[in-house]
Design brief:
The chain has six helices and two strands; from the N terminus they run H-H-H-E-E-H-H-H. The protein has helices at 6-18, 23-30, 37-49, 70-86, 90-99, 105-116, and strands spanning 53-58, 61-66. The chain has a two-stranded antiparallel ribbon. It is mainly alpha-helical and 121 residues long. 60% of the residues lie in helices and 10% in strands. Strand 1 and strand 2 (61-66) form a beta hairpin.
Length: 121
């Protein structure tokens, strides 16, 4: 799966949240962080080129719907990060967070509990 830029990810998160959207609807979701319409339209076109969304004609414009689920993207992105920075070892990922005090003993025990329960939680 192709990597997304920060701006593309931000737009994709809004599309996932809405289910499908026009550029105008996406723009409304940005609030005070609004981008120029043409910039957002270019970002969405890049998402279409990368096969993350499909454009469907709606009136004089287009509605974009996701072709990739948020879960698929998270799985792919996390897998890439683990491969690139932790030699493919999730153990090294956990160790990194523990060593940098970003994962408490309680959180680690919670993770162990999830593993023992087969991921149900």
């Amino acid at each position: 799966m192709e990597h997304l830029t920060m701006q593309e990810e931000a737009a994709m998160r809004r599309i996932w949240h809405l289910g499908s959207a026009t550029v105008k609807q996406l723009l409304e979701q940005y609030g005070s962080e609004a981008l120029p319409y043409t910039t957002l339209a270019s970002i969405v076109k890049n998402l279409e080129r990368k096969n993350f969304v499909k454009a469907e004609r709606e009136g004089i414009g287009y509605r974009y719907r996701p072709l990739v689920t948020e879960e698929e993207y998270k799985r792919s992105s996390l897998g890439t990060m683990v491969s690139n920075y932790f030699a493919g070892s999730y153990r090294q990922v956990v160790n990194f967070f523990v060593e940098n005090q970003q994962l408490s003993k309680e959180e680690l025990q919670e993770i162990i509990g999830l593993i023992e329960d087969g991921g149900e939680g």
